[in-house]
Amino acid sequence: DFIVISLRENGSEEIYIHPNGPRGERVRLPENEHTLSLSGDIEYVSKKIRFTYQSFLTPRTVYDYDVFSKRSITRKRQSVPRWKAAGYVSKRIWVKSGNVKVPVTMVHRKGLALNGTAPLLLEAYGAYGICTDPYFSISKLSLLERGWICALAHPRGGGEMGWKWHEDAKLRTKHRTYKDVIAVADHLVAKRFTSRETLALLGGSAGGMMVGAVLNLRPDLVNAAVAYVPAADLLTSSFDESLGGTRLHYDETGDPRKPDIYRYLKKYSPYEGVRPAEYPTLLVRANLNDIRTPYWEAAKWVARLRDRKRGDSRVLFKTEMVAGHFGKSGRYEWIKDRAYDFAFLIRSLATRKRR
Question: Distance (Å, rounded) from C-alpha 30 to C-alpha 54?
């Protein structure tokens, strides 16, 4: 009786119901900025569809949606004691970067004074066509309650705006990802959401590579940064085919055995690009058993930063001795890790002022 289609529109995944032909109707959802997963249905004859939904404001929730009555029925919701979504606001802004507009999803406490004094954590990934949609984070509540703004940028290289969004920042146009992140950071400061002294940058894996490349281009951009398992020595690792996934990365970052690709990679590889400049306070995290971004990449990058940077900013290096690319196993280990990271950010922004 109907067809269900999930698609991406204005930076978010949406569900459209097509009951009679090509003209569909969008399912209304609590927020415009969200993460959505449409479930398969083993019941062919059914008037309901099931999907999982979450956002910066809504914990992970499973809904059954009645196509004909247009009502959503909550089947299960993640329990978050004392969480009151009404006390916070989530929104999406669009930032001009070159000839495109980059979506940025933000959340902060309702009534927070946006006068340039609020600490802001800017997070981004922007690679492999992967969509980093806004999700409910219990750990970030500790920042939000302290008056922080959490912002998730969706630069080119990811898939949030469709496949072309990915195609526009790969191989020899990968630098567009970093220009987008810089444009977002500058916009947030210009519009007084935050200031240079209260702005922090975070990214992991290819997002960690983003942190390194951005800081090499603009060491003055932020006051503190965290890089998780960064692809920091991209050039060297791309020559080593014994590493897991090296050849698979050639479609994204390029094959350095080709001279033009070699020269291009050398320009934005974090390790290669370190220069004599004042870098922000930095926490670099690596995991000993990581076969995607080996710990020695981060170690070499940190050593070169400590050797070449100017000023008195700290560069901390923390290696987990029993962990892979996605961190330590164990149900609660991630809580300790995030507490460490956020304590680092809070202290860094509170104690170090730019000259």
Answer: 9
Lowest mean pLDDT segment, chosen from 51-55, 212-216, 217-221, 230-234: 230-234
Q: Which residues does residue 17 pair with via DSSP β-bridges, in sequence order?
A: 4, 25
List pLDDT tens digits, range 289-343: 887 888 899 999 999 999 999 999 999 999 988 877 877 777 788 888 999 999 9
Q: Which of 80, 15, 11, 89 is nearest to 56 (CA)?
A: 89
- Phi then psi dihedrals of residue 75, to 5 deg: -100, -35
Element (H, E) at 152: strand 149-153
Nearby residues of 103 by Cβ (< 8 Å), 6 or more positions away: 10, 11, 92, 93, 94, 153, 154, 160, 161
Q: From CA 118, how far away is CA 341, in angstroms rounded?
A: 18
> Token pair of 324, please?
């892979």
Reduce the secondary structure of 154-181 to three states and give it as a string: CCECECCCCHHHHHCCCHHHCHHHHHHH
Report the alpha-carbon distance of residue 346 to residue 134 in Å, rounded: 22
Tokens of 44: 């062919």
Sheet of 61-66: strand order equals 35-38, 48-54, 61-66, 71-77
d(CA 233, CA 208): 11
Catalytic amino acids? 205, 290, 325
Whole-structure pTM value? 0.94
N residues, the chain? 355
Q: What is the pLDDT of residues 60-99, one digit of tens each?
A: 999 999 999 999 999 999 999 999 999 999 999 999 999 9
Q: How many CB atoms lie within 10 A of CB 75?
A: 11
Tell me the C-alpha to C-alpha distance, in Å, between residue 279 and each of 187, 213, 268, 307: 20, 12, 16, 12
- Enter the tokens of residue 122: 């800017």
Check pLDDT > 90 for residue 354.
Answer: no
Mean pLDDT of 263-276: 94
> N- to C-terminal Cα distance for the chain?
66
